Amino acid sequence: MKTPNPLALIAEITHRCPLHCVYCSNPLEMAAVSSELSTKKWIDVFQQAGKLGMLHAHFTGGEPLARPDLTELIAGARSAGLYTNLITSGIGLSETRLQALVEAGLDHIQLSFQDSREAAANWIAGAKAHAHKVELSRLIRRHNIAFTVNLVIHRQNIDHLDEMIAFIEQLAPERMEIAHTQYYGWALRNRAALLPTREQLATAVEAVSAADKRLAGRIRVDSVVPDYYARFPKACMGGWGRKLMLINPAGKVLPCHAAEVIPGLTFENVREQTLDFIWQQSPSFQRFRGEEWMPEPCRSCDQRTEDFGGCRCQALLLTGDAAATDPACSLAPAHHIVEAALAEANSSAAVSQPVPAASFVQLQQRAADLWSYRTNPE
Amino acid sequence: MPPPEDSSQPRLATGCRWGAESKTGSQRERVVLYPEGALRLRDTGLLILESCDGQHTFGQIIGELQAQFGDADPAKIRADISQFLEQLKHKRIVDY
């Protein structure tokens, strides 16, 4: 049977980024700058995506603004009929550049914040970025585009979630996304310092629910309970090869941003194959599509059409087997791995505290025992 | 959340817009694109949202649909449209 066409394209246009967030989900091995796709190739990819019936192009990275041709890329995606979404830290976005992006057809901007408190935000990001983001929010509101504020929460900031929600409220977005850290890439390295306690989580869930009621009709509040604490795993990417295609800076086409960690899979490149071929034919997209690959207990579980067995990358990272049931699932044979991490998080005191520093290098040295800061590709 | 008033002029929220139109047989279908997804609309849902152009008032939209669906209970039509728009406002797809 022909697989229904994908709905959205995630365009990871560069792995370069001026921030060094300790929970960055980019791979530890990043695509080199010299391997990045050209402007022309990206525009061709957007044309193919539009013809395949995709609806959205999500521009991400790294920091997409690190590509000087971003305006052309947005215009290219828009003229291919795609809704354009820029997921950004805002670093590198001046008033004139924002104006140009909006004129090129940018529909939505999603700006990430690290905290409501400047010192803490800069510490997590490994860069002095907070004040610029606040200023940028005001500029964004002068344009007729949708605005989402994203905030990643974790053990170090979750206790003042109410304050952070109030902070976001005064930035006046249409939508706020309260995202719990997901443990891939740099976040998995730093998990002990990031995983909240059960009590912290319960308080946060209440804060989000109260905010959703209070802000109804003004600001949409989106938040998902972190999978380590959930009964069933998340339907990662809406299921492997079911809805989304991600293209990395070097042109490799992946079912999700972390898929390259899975050994034995070869990913096609848009330089050699069409999106249509890759979606329908490539072994990598078919590997975990459908139910054939599923082990027990997934194979006979009623949840399999909801969560598709959870996340393949998380299964690999935690159990060493990408075809295992996601250990976040309470029914998974390897659930004890997640339980052990939770037991540790709920027994020890918070692992680390902010270290003030004048520069990223200094910060990296001082934080060496506590954190791994995200680096940049060569 | 308060329902729309008769004088409200519902419209797509900032950053939401119409996407492609398609046809299956005589059935018209259009999508509304918003930041994190898309809404596929046909039948009455499509009629209602197409009237949400920032010009028509909520009262006019109800009147038009009541006229078009004369057999149905007018109070139910009003309640259904109101609920539909309230849900979309909560999702920040519609403003009124």
* Residue share in β-strands of chain B: 25-35%
**Biggest beta-sheet profile of chain A:** 9 strands, mixed
The total count of strands of chain B amounts to 5
Radius of gyration of chain B: 13 Å
The succession of helices and strands of chain B, N to C, reads: EEEEHHHE
Question: What would you say about this model in short?
Answer:
Chain A is of the alpha/beta class and 378 residues long. Chain A has helices at residues 39-51, 70-79, 95-103, 118-125, 130-140, 161-169, 185-189, 191-194, 198-215, 275-281, 283-286, 304-307, 312-319, 335-347, 360-366, and strands at residues 8-12, 56-60, 83-88, 108-113, 146-153, 175-180, 220-223, 244-247, 253-254. Helices cover 34% and strands 12% of the residues of chain A.
Give a description of the structure.
The complex is a heterodimer of chains A (378) and B (96). Chain A is of the alpha/beta class and 378 residues long. Chain A is built from 15 helices and 9 strands. Chain A has a 9-stranded mixed β-sheet. In chain A, helix 3 links the parallel strand 3 and strand 4. Chain A starts with 7 loop residues before the first strand and ends in a 12-residue tail after the last helix. Chain B has 96 residues and is of the alpha+beta class. In chain B, the strands form 2 sheets. Chain B has a 3-stranded antiparallel β-sheet. A two-stranded antiparallel sheet of chain B has the order 1-5. In chain B, a hairpin with a 2-residue loop joins strand 3 and strand 4. The termini of chain B are close together. The model of chain B has no long low-confidence stretch (mean pLDDT 93). The interface between A and B is medium-sized, with 21 and 20 residues.
